[in-house]
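Next comes a concrete protein, fold included:
___
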Amino acid sequence: MAEGFTVTRVFDAPREMVFRAWTTPARFAGWFGLPGFTTPPDRVVMDVRPGGAWEVVLVPHGAAGAPGAGGDEVRMCGLFRDVIEPERVVFTFDRTELITVTLTDLGARTEMVFHQGGGGLTAEEYEQARRSWAGIFDQLTTRLGV
């Protein structure tokens, strides 16, 4: 099994705004998702504290792009391990994976270092996850108004 991967991004947004995008259900729903799916705000639950649970349900688009019209929903969940506002969020994902998001204040900009690891995936699966997260972070960039 592989060790994981790290993605670094710089956003043209204050650190507090990026932190809220990770920890506020309605804001998270606005950028988190996979191609072909919608993340309804009422399907995001976050108890943002160490030991608190999170859950996201992605709803597939139908043939005409209507949410819920076809395919299976995708449920993702885990527990928050560490939360230091507005610097860091650590949470479990898919039982074996641990995600650490570290935010560094660059004035009006924010550097985000995202690490996913845990050893539960093969090197190929980590590469696929890295590509998926890169697309998701493109959506976050757009949502932050960059």
The helical segments are 15-23, 25-31, 123-143. The two ends are 36 Å apart (CA to CA).
